[in-house]
Amino acid sequence: MVFSLGVTAFASGGTNYETITGEYRYYPALALLGGGDATYHFKYSDEYFTHSGYEYNHDLAIMTMDMAQSDGVSQDGGWDVSNQNFFDLMGKCGFENFDSNYYSTHEPTGDSIGVSIGTKSIVDNGRKYTLLVVGVRGHGYGNEWASDFTMGYEGDHQGFAEARDLTLAYIKDYIAQHKITGPIKIWMSGYSRSAITANMVGGKLDQGYNFGNGVKFNPDDLYCYTFETPQGVYDSHAHDALYCNIHNILNHNDLVPLVSFTEWGQTRYGVDYYLPCRQYDSEYYALKGQVDAKLDQLGWMNLLGLTLDTIDDFHYISLDPQTQLAKKNYTQIEFYPEAFAALFDTMSPTREYFVENMQADIQEVSKTLLGVDTNRLMNALAIFGQKFVALDSLRQLLSSLTIPGMISEGTVVDVIVDLFMESMQEAQCADYNGDQVRAALKNLVPKLLVLVEKYPDTVMTLLGNLVQILNAHFPEIGLTWMKVTPASFFEAQNPSNFFSDVAYASYYYDAVKWAYGKGIVKGYTATCFGPDDTCTRGQVASFLWRAAGCPEPKASTCKFVDVDPASPHYKAIIWASEKGITLGFDATHFRPDQQCTRAQIVTFIYRYEGSPKTSAKCPFVDVQNPYLKSVTWAAKEGITLGKDATHFEPNSPCTRAQVVTFLYRDMA
Questions:
Q1: Which candidate, 310, 264, 282, places its Cα nearest to that of 30?
Q2: In this predicted model, what pLDDT tens digit does every residue of 520-554 receive, in sequence order?
Q3: Which residues, other chains included, contact 213 with Cβ-Cβ below 8 Å and sequence gap of 6+?
């Protein structure tokens, strides 16, 4: 490999940060048989880590994808040197003190995970940090891929949670062994199985994971980018603001990010960003032209001699010519819901059913098959899919399944197993035990026949498009799309863009996001909310009026002489007065521009809800009439937590963020 290293410098906050460029080695996802590792170029700077991790940084996203691509097995050595491509790339970026856990340099087992770490010192705003780069092995999983099917009965996906815990434990051990103290930043990557591992590790870090005495870590200093991330988190708050420093970059056409299933309560932490696709993005074809040119320039071809990017070559296959004609323009995105519906209807109606009836057999098949070279196995699957669809006798066999007594189950099993074994041989999958493969498949295929019998078109379409479905998951595809797509395309998908002054990790982020989505708040401008500004009485009246759906007040004029008819709060104040939400300061004055106190806003909400009765005792010693009932009710309902356990500070001005948070706790 010819390595070229270029360095430029630029100023940021008075500090010069080098931009390092060069090449790195990686194991191609679709390597032609033999040929060794491939090379690709990268661009790195310490400046990436001088911004909050809650900000999406496209240059950092691309560099993290480069890092993830380097982190896996190598064609140029055994398991003992499988971490070297990662170490070499990170070394060029200035990291040192490299180490890996046991599984990173040994053949994977059914429940292992490979993790590698390096460190460097960086300065951010005059403060010195230890930056840890954490690479979770993203390919070359071997047998550990079988744990992808270890669902468990409840909660987080069991197999992914075990990988998460192993990774967290190793990070903590590394910090202890290298005697790291003081403030730290963590840069973490993952692809596919390792992506959900990194994602779930990031979730634990955001929740306040304890690294030990002397280590200081803030979620703003987590830079977690994951790619083609499966689902494995069982948490209804996984997309709360706290976790928006976890950035997941996905392909709409990729099947992997759709499993495990939303229907089983599974999701990911953080923010999902999607690559362009033809169904949703008008600029898709212009960008795809650049992608195809880049892939052609790089010579990235798959094992069947087709261009690597075959996503748009998807074709629906049906035993009924009319159905096939009707669905001739079907896409992968449209097909996947059909496939999942068929799966749930026949093989895995519930998570419990899957665990008790499918999990062990699928794990056994995975362990058996993944003992062979992964690329050859992918080729075998592609060949099998083509053979399956092309075999006329098999099509007739599938048609006959709908006729009771026409054929035996054993006959179908033998045909399918023989076809798969033939495909394995053609793909030169020599490093496997044929008897074990046949035994494992024979135990699973009868269960698959329930799916085949009821949904033959779905099965044939799935197998006939395996090349297209597999290609959507290859990192070369995602990385190339990321490099040709403008940063603004991804930045526009960031949910924080509604107000630039509402920080992801702030306590009021979810409240403002909710209120904005409901039309309760509009902000000063399209990008400015003013969360720390004191809220006026007129603004509070408008917030409540909009929450009620902006009803037309009965009166056309306001009884309060100090409310200007030109005021944006005019109708809201008339309505609030009619509803008894506000009584005014006296019969003719409302004081719309006066600061709203904490007691006043809680009382407005209390009256908005109809002044409900409560038998609770007020926990705050500084609250008296006329606000005692409203504050007592709000405390009991969890609308206010007080300034501390025994003080409410009723006369303190209430900020716009605090007001919206009260509303969110009451109404959301």
A1: 310
A2: 888 887 678 899 999 999 999 999 999 998 999 99
A3: none
